[in-house]
Amino acid sequence: MSGFPLSGLLRLRNLQEQIAAAAFADVNRALDRVHDQRARIRSEMAGAEPGTVSDRTLLALAMSRASFQSMLAGLAIMHETAAARTVATAHQTAKGQARGIEKLYERHQTTAAVEGLRAEQAALDEAAVTSWRRQDGRTTR
Length: 141
Hints:
Layout (H helix, E strand, L loop, with lengths): L6 H40 L8 H86 L1
Helix pairs in contact: 1-2
């Protein structure tokens, strides 16, 4: 039986899939850090004590904080979503490429097994024919 001719490519595709999976995990950890940081900032902002200010100033401050938080949340979500999509797509691509090579490997293994069985059967057939000829030659003489 011969070796799989694309074994190097299969190893490469599996390595690419592992790298993409690691990048995907890194993005997920970064997202978790962003969520934790956002929660910490919100907690700090909620605990801030305003000094003596007018009602208008307090209202303007509250509105600007709400607007700023909303804007930051929107930007963070857009960034997180884009990063996650990019990494997920890379991971799926690497996984698909590795799977394609794995299917070729499986097909190669099946073909090699069939060829081996075919060769074994041919050897058995040859042995049977040779034995039959020997027996036939002995009985006719």
